[in-house]
Design a protein that fits this description.
The protein has a single domain (3-274), classed as Clavaminate synthase-like (Double-stranded beta-helix, 4-Layer Sandwich). It is 25% helix and 24% strand. It contains eight helices and 15 strands. The protein has helices spanning 27-40, 52-62, 95-98, 137-143, 146-152, 161-164, 174-181, 216-230, and strands at 3-7, 14-18, 42-45, 82-84, 117-124, 132-136, 156-159, 187-190, 192-194, 200-202, 208-211, 236-239, 246-250, 254-258, 268-274. The protein has a seven-stranded mixed β-sheet, with helices on one face. Strands 12-6-14 form a three-stranded antiparallel β-sheet. A three-stranded antiparallel β-sheet has the order 8-7-11. The longest helix has 15 residues, at 216-230. The protein is globular and about 55 Å long. The chain binds N-oxalylglycine and manganese (II) ion. Residues 84, 100, 106, 132, 256, 258, 269, 271 line the site of N-oxalylglycine (OGA). Residues 22-272 form the TauD/TfdA-like domain. This is TauD/TfdA family dioxygenase.
């Protein structure tokens, strides 16, 4: 097998290269990629130009694939490959995509284990804005002072789509607002996720509305401070897209967001997801 990984930053990110393009589609590559995603949080495959069939094949080889959008979106061709776009001809309900401008994790409010990974292929790169940013909540947790780690033990947060869309709620047309904000479930998750392998990450981002049992202002302030901590440059990475770039990230140990872009840029990303294997556990 001849695929190679090169670190991008100390705590986050690897760039993937290959001797022969076919090398990334082998079962050995799928295994190596899965391990690297868990280790490095974000993998970038520069200008690999995957077709949907190739993206689905990689997704399933690392996989299995899972669909997040069954209940959350109506898209003219809502298939296993979700088109992330503000083009209303394809995506008549842009709220879900506008919500990606804020730090979040995918699939936190659906009735299944959070997806292990999200995979994006860049079909049309925006000329302005539209980078994607990632923040490792493994590295961020690890870097917290010991007494702060202890203060988080046993805490839970309540998550909802309503909370994640609160920054844009008043911009949603009134006739859609109630339905859009009601998407998904209201779920409580431990703030610190102790994974089966013993590593710990944080389950934070805009879906987290408040800390269960804590005064609302104090709990919200804690959530904002943790998200800011995780987003500091040492633990985060910004990817500027070129057409054909493909990125896989560990959704169980990272928040992500898009830098705002305008629909006039034509930005188009094709998204797939890999099923999670573990519910969030303390
Ligand atoms: C998503 C998402 C980020 C981006 O599709 O879930 O967060 O940069 N996308 O488009
Ligand atoms: Mn997302």
């Amino acid at each position: 097998m001849a695929i190679h990984f090169e670190n991008i930053k100390e705590f986050i990110g690897s760039r993937v290269s290959w001797d022969d393009r076919a090398d990334i589609f082998t079962p050995e590559a799928a295994k190596a990629i899965r391990e690297k995603v868990a280790e490095r949080t974000v993998l970038v495959f520069p200008e690999v130009d995957l077709t949907d069939e190739e993206q689905l094949a990689i997704t399933n080889a690392i996989g299995p694939k899972v669909r997040l959008t069954n209940t959350t979106n109506v898209q003219s061709n809502d298939e296993d490959v979700y088109q992330v776009t503000l083009d209303e001809k394809i995506n008549p309900q842009p709220e879900y995509v506008l919500g990606t401008f804020f730090w979040h994790m995918d699939g936190i409010t659906v009735d299944m284990p959070p997806p292990f990974a999200t995979l994006l292929s860049c079909r049309i790169a925006p000329d302005k804005g539209g980078e994607t940013e990632f923040a490792s909540t493994y590295a961020a947790y690890e870097g917290l002072p010991e007494e702060e780690k202890q203060a988080l033990e046993g805490l839970k947060a309540e998550h909802s789509v309503k909370a994640s869309l609160s920054p844009i709620a008043d911009a949603i047309p009134e006739k859609h607002r109630e339905r859009v904000l009601g998407i998904g479930l209201i779920k409580e998750h431990p703030l610190v996720w102790r994974h089966e392998d013993g590593r710990k990450s944080m389950v934070i981002g805009t879906t987290a509305d408040h800390i269960v049992g804590m005064d609302i202002p104090a709990g919200r302030a804690m959530l904002v401070r943790l998200a800011e901590w995780a987003a500091q440059p040492a633990y985060s990475l910004r990817h500027k897209w070129k057409k054909g770039d493909f990125v896989i990230w560990d959704n169980t140990g990272a928040m992500h967001r898009a830098v705002p872009y305008d629909k006039s840029t034509g930005r188009m990303m094709h998204r797939t997801s890999i099923a999670g294997t573990e519910a969030v556990a303390a």
